[in-house]
Write a structure and sequence with these properties.
The complex is a heterodimer of chains A (about 325) and B (about 325). Chain A is of the alpha/beta class. Chain A is built from 12 helices and 12 strands. Chain A has 2 domains: about 140 residues, Rossmann fold, CATH 3.40.50.2300; about 140 residues, Rossmann fold, CATH 3.40.50. The longest helix of chain B has 27 residues. Chain B has 13 helices and 6 strands. Classes of the chains: A alpha/beta (about 325), B mainly alpha (about 325). Chain A: Keywords: Signal.
C-alpha cells in the first residue's frame, strides 16, 4: 500500500514537473531571439583600429568581444599599432577576406578613403568608430567632434573672458592635424572664437598625442605668455604633459586645462592630481555599446546592400571635473568584462 | 684625431670644424631670436630650452658614445620606453617603486648586454642588429603591457623631485643630463677604457691586432648606452608622470642620431666627444623653442629644421671636403 501510494505520488510529481517544464519553455522563448541568434551566428567581423594600446580601443573591444562570445559571431582585431602602412595592409587583407562587417578607426580622413569605397563596392558593410574618413559608409558611431571643439573652447571662454579673467590667452594643443577629430574640433573652436572675439589663441600646435611634446610646447608658451589663462587639448593621456608643465611653473590656479578622453580611471586620477581641470568624457564603454547595437543591426540585415543607407550615431559627452570624477565616469577595463 | 671633432679647414689660425659651424649657427639663431622675440632671452626661457632638450641630449650622449666606437644603437628609444614601462608594470603588482626601477635598470642592462654580444661576438653589423633588437624589445613590451601609456604610482618623492625639483634654480632634468654628459666626458677623455673606445672606433682591426680587448669594450658600450637610455626614461617619467611607449614609433631615435652627427661625431667612428653632442643638442633646442614661440605649424617647423640641419652639414662639407686622407672605411 505504501509502495503503491509512493509510486502514485512520484508519477503525479513527474507529470506536474513535465507539464510545468513545457509551459516554461513556451512562455520564455523571447520573441525574435531565435531569429536574432540565427542572423548573427557565425558572422565574421574584422576591426582595424589605429592602435589597441589606447584606452578607448581597449574598452570598445572588451564590449564587442562580450557581445561576440554571447551571441556567436566572431570579432578579429587587426592591430596596425599606429603604423599607417600596416593599417593599409590590414584593410586590404580584411577586404580580401570578405567578412560580413569591417569596423574601422581611421588614422586620418584620407588614408583609407578609397579602401572604404572598395570594401563597400565588394559588398562588405563598414562601421566607422570615433575617427571618420572622408568616405561615408554604412554607419559612424563616435564623437560629435565639432561639438567637442565647441564644448572645450566654450569651457575656456567661461574662464578666460570677462573682467575677472587673468587674461584672454588660450592655447589649442592639437593632436594629428590630418585626423578627423582635429579637423572637426577646429571648426567648433573657430565658432567659439568668433563668438568671443576677445579670446586670443596664442598657440596652436600639434602635440601628436604625446605627453612629453605637450609638456614642451606648454613650457615654452608659458615663458612667452606668463599670464596664460587656458589650455585645451584632444586626449587626456597627452594633456597630462601640459598639466605637468603648468604645475612645474606653479600656475595650477591660474591656467585651466580642458581636454577630452575615453573616461578611464587614469583620466580621473589626473584630475585628482591636479594635472587636468576638466575632461569632456566620451565614455568609450557606452560608445562601444552603441557600436555593438550597430554591429547587430548590420549583421541582422544581410539583404541590405553595403552603403545603401548611411547612419550616424553620436555618443554621450559628460563634463567631468573634480566633483564628479567618480564611479562610471572613471571606468577600469576589468569592470567592463 | 682621437678625442677631437672631425678635422676641419682653417680660417686664419682657427680650425673650422663642424662643431664650430653648429655653434656659430646656434649663436646666430640665439641672437636673432633674442632680438626679435619677447621673453626669449629671459632666464626662464633659457632654462626651458635646456629642460626641453634634456631627454634628447641624454639619449644623444649615449648614442654619441656608441658612434665614437664605430657602432650605432637604434635600440635606445625601445630600451627607454620598455625599461621604464617594465618598472611601472612591476610596481603595479605592489612591489616598491624604487625596487621596481632597479629591476627595470637590470632589464635595460640585460638588453644592452645581449645587443653588445650580438654586435661584438656574433659580429652582426650594429645597424641591423640594433634595428632588429629594438623591434623585438618594443614588440615584447607591447604584448606584456597592453596599454601604450603607463602611469607611475603617485607620491613617489624622488620621482617628483626628478620632474619638478631643482638644484640652485636649475631643474633636475637638466642637472641629470649635465651629470650624464660630464661623467661620459670624463670617462672618454680621462680613463684608459675611454681611450680604448676611440682606438676601437678608429680602426677596429688594428685595435684587435695590437691586442686590445675590443669585444668586451663593445659589449660594455652597449650596456652603458642602454642604462643611459633608461635614465632618459626616468627623467621623462618624472617630467610627465608616466611613459608613453608609442614614442618608439616616433622619429625620436633619428633626432638623437641627428644631434650626434650634426654635432660633428662622424659615423665612421673614432672622432668627437660629448662636446659635439652638446653643440648639436643646443642647436636643436634653440631652433625648436624659437619656432614654438613663433607658433609655426608642425609641417613648417619640420621643413625649417631640416633646411637648417642640412645647411649645417653642407657648410661642413664645403669647409672640410672629404678626400682620401680624411675619409675612412666604414663611413656611412
Amino acid at each position: 500500500m505504501l509502495f503503491k501510494n509512493g509510486l502514485l505520488a512520484c508519477l503525479t510529481a513527474l507529470t506536474l514537473l513535465g507539464g510545468a517544464k513545457l509551459a516554461t519553455a513556451q512562455e520564455t522563448d523571447q520573441v525574435g531571439r531565435a531569429a536574432y541568434l540565427e542572423a548573427v551566428k557565425g558572422k565574421k567581423v574584422i576591426f582595424v583600429p589605429i592602435s589597441q594600446g589606447m584606452d578607448l580601443n581597449q574598452a570598445w573591444v572588451t564590449v564587442w568581444q562580450r557581445h561576440a562570445a554571447r551571441y556567436g559571431f566572431t570579432l578579429e582585431v587587426r592591430d596596425p599599432n599606429g603604423d599607417t602602412n600596416a593599417g593599409i595592409r590590414a584593410m586590404q587583407g580584411a577586404i580580401a577576406e570578405k567578412p560580413d562587417l569591417i569596423i574601422v578607426q581611421n588614422p586620418d580622413v584620407q588614408t583609407y578613403a578609397r579602401l572604404l569605397k572598395q570594401a563597400q563596392a565588394s559588398g562588405i558593410k563598414v562601421l566607422q568608430v570615433n575617427m571618420q574618413s572622408a568616405t561615408q559608409t554604412d554607419s559612424y558611431v563616435g564623437n560629435d567632434w565639432i561639438e567637442m571643439g565647441r564644448l572645450e573652447m566654450g569651457e575656456l571662454a567661461k574662464h578666460c573672458t570677462g573682467p575677472n579673467a587673468v587674461s584672454h590667452k588660450v592655447v589649442w594643443l592639437a593632436g594629428v592635424q590630418t585626423g578627423a577629430a582635429n579637423i572637426y574640433m577646429r571648426t567648433g573652436i573657430d565658432e567659439v572664437l568668433k563668438a568671443n572675439p576677445e579670446l586670443q589663441l596664442v598657440s596652436d600646435q600639434p602635440a601628436d598625442y604625446m605627453s612629453e611634446k605637450a609638456r614642451q610646447i606648454t613650457e615654452t608658451v608659458l615663458q612667452q605668455h606668463p599670464d596664460l589663462c587656458g589650455i585645451m587639448g584632444i586626449w587626456d593621456n597627452a594633456e597630462v604633459g601640459a598639466g605637468a608643465a603648468v604645475a612645474a611653473a606653479g600656475k595650477q590656479d591660474q591656467v585651466t586645462i580642458v581636454t577630452n578622453g575615453a573616461g578611464s580611471a587614469t583620466g580621473c586620477e589626473s584630475i585628482k592630481n591636479g594635472l587636468l581641470d576638466v575632461i569632456f568624457n566620451f565614455n568609450a564603454p557606452i560608445q562601444g555599446e552603441i557600436a555593438a547595437q550597430q554591429i547587430s543591426e548590420l549583421l541582422q540585415r544581410p539583404e541590405r546592400q553595403a552603403g545603401s543607407e548611411k547612419t550616424i550615431f553620436f555618443g554621450p559627452i559628460t563634463r567631468v571635473d573634480k566633483d564628479n570624477a567618480v564611479g562610471r565616469n572613471c571606468w577600469k577595463l576589468d569592470d567592463l568584462k | 684625431m682621437a678625442g677631437r671633432g672631425k678635422p676641419g679647414g682653417r680660417i686664419g689660425s682657427v680650425q673650422i670644424s663642424q662643431e664650430l659651424v653648429v655653434i656659430a649657427i646656434s649663436v646666430i639663431l640665439f641672437a636673432v631670436f633674442s632680438a626679435t622675440l619677447n621673453n626669449f632671452l629671459s632666464q626662464g626661457n633659457v632654462i626651458a630650452i635646456l629642460k626641453n632638450v634634456s631627454i634628447l641630449g641624454t639619449l644623444a650622449v649615449g648614442m654619441g658614445f656608441i658612434v665614437v666606437g664605430r657602432g650605432i644603437d637604434l635600440t635606445m628609444v625601445a630600451v627607454m620606453v620598455v625599461g621604464v614601462a617594465f618598472s611601472i608594470w612591476v610596481s603595479s603588482w605592489g612591489v616598491d617603486f624604487t625596487l621596481a626601477v632597479i629591476c627595470g635598470a637590470l632589464l635595460a642592462a640585460a638588453i644592452g648586454l645581449f645587443t653588445g654580444i650580438m654586435v661584438a661576438v656574433a659580429e652582426i653589423p650594429p645597424i641591423f642588429a640594433t634595428l632588429a633588437i629594438a623591434s623585438s624589445v618594443y614588440g615584447s613590451g607591447r604584448i606584456v603591457f597592453a596599454s601604450d601609456v603607463l602611469y607611475a604610482p603617485p607620491n613617489i618623492a624622488w620621482l617628483k623631485f626628478v620632474g619638478n625639483g631643482s638644484v640652485f634654480g636649475i631643474p633636475m632634468s637638466v642637472v641629470m643630463f649635465a651629470c650624464v654628459a660630464a661623467l661620459m666626458a670624463f670617462f672618454l677623455r680621462k680613463t684608459r677604457f675611454g681611450r680604448l673606445v676611440y682606438a676601437t672606433g678608429d680602426n677596429p682591426n688594428a685595435a684587435r691586432t695590437t691586442g686590445l680587448p675590443t669585444r668586451p669594450i663593445i659589449v660594455t658600450q652597449y650596456v652603458i648606452s642602454a642604462l643611459i637610455a633608461f635614465t632618459a626614461g626616468i627623467i621623462m617619467t618624472g617630467l610627465v608622470t608616466g611613459i608613453d611607449t608609442r614614442l618608439y614609433n616616433s622619429s625620436l631615435i633619428y633626432d638623437v642620431l641627428l644631434v650626434v652627427v650634426l654635432g660633428g661625431i662622424g659615423l665612421s667612428g673614432g672622432q668627437g666627444g660629448v662636446r659635439n653632442v652638446i653643440a648639436g643638442t643646443i642647436l636643436v633646442g634653440i631652433l625648436t623653442n624659437g619656432m614654438t614661440i613663433l607658433n609655426f605649424s608642425y609641417t613648417s617647423q619640420n621643413l625649417i629644421k631640416s633646411v637648417i640641419l642640412l645647411s649645417a652639414l653642407a657648410i661642413d662639407a664645403i669647409i672640410n671636403p672629404r678626400d682620401e686622407q680624411t675619409s675612412q672605411s666604414g663611413d656611412i
